[in-house]
Amino acid sequence: MSTRIERLKVCLNGGRSRGDHPAVPLAPVELAASAAAAVDAGAEAVHLHPRGADGGESLLAAVIAAAVTAVRQACPGTPVGVSTGLWITGGDPAARQSAVAAWAGLPAVARPDFASVNLSEPGWEGLCDILASAEIAAEAGIGSVADADRFAAARQAVDWLRILVEISDIPAHKAVAAADEVLHRLDELSPTAPRLLHGEGPACWPLIAHAGTLGLPTRIGLEDTTVGPDGSAVRDNAELVQLALQTRRASTAP
After folding, report:
1. Full-prediction pTM beyond 0.85?
2. Do residues 212 and 251 lie in contact, with contact meaning Cβ atoms separated by under 8 Å?
């Protein structure tokens, strides 16, 4: 299965709850339905945060397997990835490594194709080794120039699938400049892995447009925003995908 993304990845839920948006998918059946609709709308890959029985994010193998299997069955041939955010194990790198190591024992249908690894979090180097042993590709989550430098220091040791340039906690009018700072540093470091550019919250829509201008893939979904480019509430992930593709086309138009 190819894990290349030409235009758009959908991020289904992140850490959001139904209180954030009524269409946030949590259970495997909900993730599967939301993913299928998003793929039908034009998404080329799926990123999700599986939830345990209590509704909280989880890295436990059984929870990962249930979510990934459901989405893979609903979207055959579509790459499926998950988060490895350190907050999911309460900030404990050892607990995270132990949970992710168990993924190697999952059958292929239940094992993620890729996992995002935030380079701002301690223990990411060992986590990449564990993912490689499980034959799960790693995406480098880079949100700052400092993260880019960490990437450069270890890039020979990790066969990265792609670089995620992720801009968050910043006003919309500063998003493009912040992204360009990181992208420029990556240019100086000359990594060979492909890049995907996206923002969260207010930075989301400006960076979807900027990704289109630069010819880079991007991502969209209820993890990143619950509103459209005009600030109005959206129906679900599929509508966000449609709006993102429209925004991308407009930004690349002559």
Report:
1. yes
2. yes
